[in-house]
Structures are given as structure tokens and as C-alpha cells.
Design a protein that fits this description.
This protein is an alpha/beta fold and 370 residues long. The chain is 39% helix and 15% strand. It binds pyridoxal-5'-phosphate.
């Protein structure tokens, strides 16, 4: 199989697995236990915290391990809403991941007010619209998807954070798709991460909470993670996340994506590359094949051994028109002809060339049926 679906999830790096194995095979201890094995597990967690902090440019005590980004995102929204009820407004975008969109809906159902920023044809928010939304100084949280999982478009987070802070709002960045791909060059208050998007296992993630900000835990109980996230620590998962963070320090290049796109466009010039000239991840290619059915393409590519996804959300098997492409001004027909190819450092140029010829074969086959 040629796996080109890294934005949905990535394969675990063998070095990550290697780091985790001792905590399944040899050391079953609870990290809260006072015996030697427990102390060893605790030490491993704390060194993973250092690795994670080094990757995102924070301090170890600002890292809270969670079950993944969905939990991190939920925790941020709940905390801000609870601690600053008078700051009723949430500002977010129409192109968030489902976790962000659902949290926004909950914010509104809980009596808050939500401003959903639109995006332009390139998937970028308008900073003037953000400034206008911040005017009342009633905003508790600005929560923005830093790099879009469908298109790879990167929002101007530094400008967003500066503007929000000027108006007394806290800033949360969903940085899930950024890790190992683009520099985290903005000062935010909260940052959500997910291990399985950068070669750690599924079910482990982290939340960065700036030490200058108060935080109310979502999960309470045994008081683990300094009282910020209760529940017995997933020691192997945390160790794997730390190792994956260390390996992700070097960001990847756009070599594979660029070769993929240029080879494809030279043979199939009608292909539309979304946000081609906007800041975008070096590893995501969101492509529309006008007139061709993406669902049909997916089936043919699956049969040919290429794993990719439709332009629609990665969390369900359904083929709803993508809310992201819709917000960018594309119609449902365009969205239904869109495929997403996403690369990781585990892909090779040979795979790219082979994938291009399989995509072209599938496209010709579908066109012949029209
Ligand atoms: N945010 C983005 C941008 C994502 O791509 C995902 C994964 O699908 C999530 C959040 C949710 O992450 P997790 O699977 O760790 O809950």
C-alpha cells in the first residue's frame, strides 16, 4: 500500500515503538507508585514532558498529557468558559476541525456568544474581521485551527495572537497538523496536540497551558498531571509521544508534495490545487479533479493500493460536502470532486511517482465512463 493519508493518522515510527516497549514488557508500574518501578515510570514521563516542551518552545511544567487533541480542545473551551463567564464571546472560524466546531456549538448552548470568522478563496481569515470581532473586549477565547487538516492552509497565528492579546482575549491554537511540518512561531496561551499525527500512537496527546494563565481541569479525580488532568497516566503512550516529539524537531520539506503536484498537473492540467499560493503545509495536497467523482476515485485508488481521502472531514466515512471548501467559496460539486493526499517523512519519491501514475489511471478510467 502507498499510504498518502498522513493528515488522518500516521504510522508509528519504529523508534517510538522501541521506546514504548519496555513500559509494556518490563515495567508495568503506575507512575504514582512509590517503589522503584513506579519511580522509573515517573522519570520517563517527566523526560517525555521535557521532550514535548522542547518541541513547542515551552516549559515542561506547561505540558499536560491528555488522550489526544479532542480532549485538549474540549478542556480549553470548558476552562475558559468556566473561569471567565463574563467574557461571553468565543471567536473561531468556519473551517475548524469538528472538535472545535462542536465546542463552539456547546459554548453557544451554554449561553455564550460565538463569532465564526469566514475565510477567503485561499482559506485564510481576514484580520480586519478579527479586529472588528474583538472590539467589545468581551471575548474570552480566540480558538483557531492553525493548519487546516483538509487543505493544509496555515493561518497567520502570530498576528492573530497579538491582536487577541491586545484586546484581553486568550488564544488557543489547534496545532495538530503543524507538528513536524511548520514552525510554531506564535505565542499562544493554549495549544492542542495529537500524537497520532506525528508518528506516535493513537490515544495520546498533549495540551500546552501557558504558566501565566489559570486553568480549570476537565477531568478531576486522582489529581495526576499536577491536578490538571486526572486519570492514571498512559506511561507507554507518553513515552512514545516524547520520542515522537524529539524526532519531529526537524520539520519536513515540501519535496514530495511538490513533485506529486507538478507531475500530476503536467499530465492532467485541469486539476485545481487548493490554496496553491497561500501559506500551507509542505505535506498536504488538496486537489479537485473537475467533473470526476471523488468517491469513485477513492474506490479505484483503494483497489490500486493507494490510501488517500476525500476532501471531506477525516473523522467519518461519510462524503458530506466539505465545510472547509464551502467556506472557501467552492460549491458542493467541486467539493465532491476533491481528494486529499497527505504525506509524511515515511513516504518516498518512488511512492510519489507510482501514486501519480495510479491516480492518472483512475482518473482516465472514470472519465471514460462519463
Ligand atoms: N484537530 C485536527 C486539526 C485534527 O486533524 C484532528 C484529528 O483528526 C483533531 C483535532 C482531533 O485529534 P484526536 O484524534 O487526537 O482527538
Amino acid at each position: 500500500m502507498i499510504y498518502l493519508d498522513a493528515n488522518a493518522t500516521t504510522p508509528v515510527d519504529p523508534a517510538v515503538l522501541e521506546a514504548m516497549l519496555p513500559f509494556w514488557r518490563e515495567n508495568p508500574a503506575n507512575a504514582s507508585a512509590s517503589h522503584a518501578a513506579g519511580r522509573k515510570a515517573r522519570k520517563a514521563i517527566e523526560s517525555a514532558r521535557e521532550q514535548m516542551a522542547a518541541l513547542i518552545g515551552g516549559e515542561a511544567r506547561e505540558i499536560v498529557f491528555t488522550s489526544g487533541a479532542t480532549e485538549s480542545i474540549n478542556a480549553v473551551h470548558a476552562s475558559v468558559r468556566h473561569l471567565w463567564p463574563e467574557k461571553r464571546r468565543l471567536i473561531t472560524t468556519k473551517t475548524e476541525h469538528a472538535a472545535g466546531l462542536e465546542c463552539a456549538e456547546r459554548w453557544e448552548h451554554g449561553g455564550g456568544e460565538v463569532r465564526m470568522l469566514g475565510v477567503d478563496r485561499n482559506g485564510l481569515i481576514d484580520l480586519t474581521e478579527l479586529r472588528e470581532a474583538l472590539q467589545s473586549n468581551a471575548t474570552g477565547l480566540v480558538s483557531i485551527l492553525w493548519a487546516n487538516n483538509e487543505t493544509g492552509v496555515i493561518q497567520p497565528m502570530r498576528e492573530i495572537a497579538d491582536m487577541a492579546h491586545e484586546h484581553g482575549a486568550l488564544v488557543h491554537a489547534d496545532a495538530v497538523q503543524m507538528i513536524g511540518k511548520a514552525p510554531l512561531d506564535a505565542k499562544v496561551d493554549f495549544l492542542s496536540l495529537s500524537g497520532h499525527k506525528f508518528h506516535a500512537p493513537k490515544g495520546i496527546g498533549a495540551l500546552f497551558v501557558s504558566q501565566s494563565v489559570r486553568f480549570e481541569p476537565l477531568l478531576i479525580g486522582g489529581g495526576q498531571e499536577g491536578g490538571r488532568r486526572s486519570g492514571t497516566e498512559n506511561v507507554p503512550g507518553i513515552v512514545g509521544l516524547g520520542k515522537a516529539a524529539e524526532l519531529a524537531m526537524a520539520t519536513c520539506s515540501s519535496e514530495l508534495r511538490d513533485a506529486f503536484e507538478s507531475q500530476l498537473v503536467s499530465e492532467w492540467p485541469e486539476v485545481v490545487i487548493h490554496a496553491r499560493h497561500a501559506p500551507r503545509l509542505p505535506t498536504t495536497s488538496s486537489l479537485c479533479f473537475p467533473g470526476l467523482d471523488a468517491a469513485g476515485m477513492l474506490i479505484l485508488l483503494d483497489q490500486a493500493g493507494v490510501a488517500c481521502s476525500a476532501g471531506s472531514a477525516c473523522h467519518t466515512a461519510s462524503l458530506h460536502p466539505s465545510h472547509v471548501l464551502e467556506a472557501m467559496g467552492y460549491d458542493a460539486r467541486h467539493a465532491a470532486s476533491t481528494l486529499r493526499f497527505s504525506f509524511s517523512r515515511m513516504n518516498t519519491m518512488t511512492e510519489v511517482t507510482e501514486a501519480v501514475s495510479k491516480v492518472l489511471r483512475a482518473a482516465h478510467k472514470l472519465r471514460d465512463l462519463l
